[in-house]
Sequence to fold (637 residues):
Amino acid sequence: MNFLTLAAKNLLRRRGRTILTVLGVAIAIAVLFSLLSLNSGYEKELNKEVNSLGVHILAVPKGCPYEAASLVIHGGVIPKYLTASDLKNVSSIDGVELATPMLMHQFIKRDNKTGKDEPHIIFGIKIDDVRELKPWWKVQGRYFADNETDVMVVGRGLADKENLTVGSTIASGPFKGFAIIGILERTGDQDDQFHFVPLSEVQRVFNKEGKVTTIAVKVKDVSKISKVSEEMEKIPDIQVVTMTQIMGTIMNLAGSARSLLLTVIAIALIISAFGIINTLLMSVNERTREFGMMKAIGASGRDIGKMVLAETIFITLVGGIIGTVAAVVGASLIESFVKGMLPYSPRGSFISLSPELIVFALAFSVALGLICGLYPAFKSSRLTPMEAIRGGFE
Amino acid sequence: MSAVIDAKALTKVYRRGREEIHALRNVDFQVEEGEFVSIIGPSGSGKTALLNVLGCLDTPSGGSLRLNGTETKGLKESELVRLRRDNIGFVFQQFYLMPTLTARENIELPLLFSHKHKNESKNRIDEILQMVGLANRGDHLPGQLSGGEMQRVAIGRALVNDPMIILADEPTGNLDSATSQMIFELFRELNRKGLTMVIVTHNLALARKAQKMYTLKDGQIVGCEDLACVFGRDDIKVQQEVV
Fold:
């Protein structure tokens, strides 16, 4: 027999009360564990989605309106351009993983079916860079090399609209004679409507050698987007548009949700802690005579305190284990419930059951036991044997 | 023989609000090593208060107490715990056994508090169970034992740390006369093995079987009868009388 088995046997004497206290702790730890795991999983998934945007920051010439793309679509011309030195400056900023130049241009082409002139958007790109930015791109046919000429890849929507197939050539407009060597699989975004050709080809066709309209930037760490964009703002002639503004708003929402969750957790834990302290104090008060007997047979105040503390830690540890297991088992249920409550939820599962979190939850339950057990342990250890023996014995 | 308990002018005053209760008034009390002493007296005479002070469960309000040569006055709580643990075994009227522990575990409890080695403990507990006649009942819970057996477990628990003195507070108070007799016999046997016994009882017949019988009244010793001439003789018939 040791103090732990003695504590366990003591707890079994008041089985009903012990079970209720353990359940109270289990619920608190389950709430703590679920909310923390969901929160960390939610943020992880949001980060993943931000990463899948590909481009985190766009650098455009200063004075260029945010709606540059819209302007171009409607026939406007971006009056200013960025240069190779701007690209060099952006690339050298700490935290930039990839900076790739793009020349976006519009051209008018007569629609074969309707006979009307329609605006088209063409992107001059460095294909390897863009494929790194957009790893989900898949092509029917093949991609071009950066030094190829008279070749083009088009979006699926455009290909369907213009009846373009791999191997066909552009019949009219400034890119007349360009061969369609690849058609992108449908992406669900604006890429479906664009033409893509090597950067040098667009610069050649529109006489814009050395000029680009946009520098697309991918950062190493999503959380450093604002820091990198601040650095980019310092470069003259550059205006910065972060593609993560919307995601940033969602991240802020997630931050508020986290504060709310932590408040709920704190309240649950405080209620649970008072429950444990109350139970232990009741138990200590009921057992004063027993403690007196123990002192009479050789226990020191420290021994009694140690026993009460062991009982508390036993309750909270068992509660912690039950709570953690319950949270793991019920995580998917809680996830579907939480997903329904959130203003925006990422597509993937955001249950994040890391071993660190499990260890944290268990360590936390033990710490809770230590905190809650200290006062009852102290109180019981201070009883003189006579005070104790005059008390009750169950 | 030397006095293992030497109390001089012991007083004990309890305060209940403004009221002062004098449980002990100038009590002189000596017990020699190996002696079998009984204390008798009506309810409220101060028997239990005296026993608690002698066992260092309570501190006297005045006077001095030497236990096995050690002056208890001014000792720290931890020193009192050690003194109590190493010298005294307690037996209570209500047994005070832990209901969730088996007889063996109840006997083991003091060893847990004295941090004795586990292997030694097992042998010692077997020996004690044998001594108190419960060799086959070690794995029973208190609820499965009779009153006499429970008191035997409590006596076993008092013996396990190998004390010099046994202080028993009404050890037969909850037992029928036959069982009381058996428990008393066990005490006598332990005394024969050299243990000093101090027993508080209401039972005059049993009290008169001790070597020395002190009578307490209103917190004072009003009588001390030397029974050495009849001690250990079962042929002496004592009238059954309960004080």
Q: What stands out?
A: The two ends of chain B are 31 Å apart (CA to CA). Residues 177-192 of chain B form the longest helix (16 residues). Chain B touches chain A through 28 residues (CB under 8 Å).
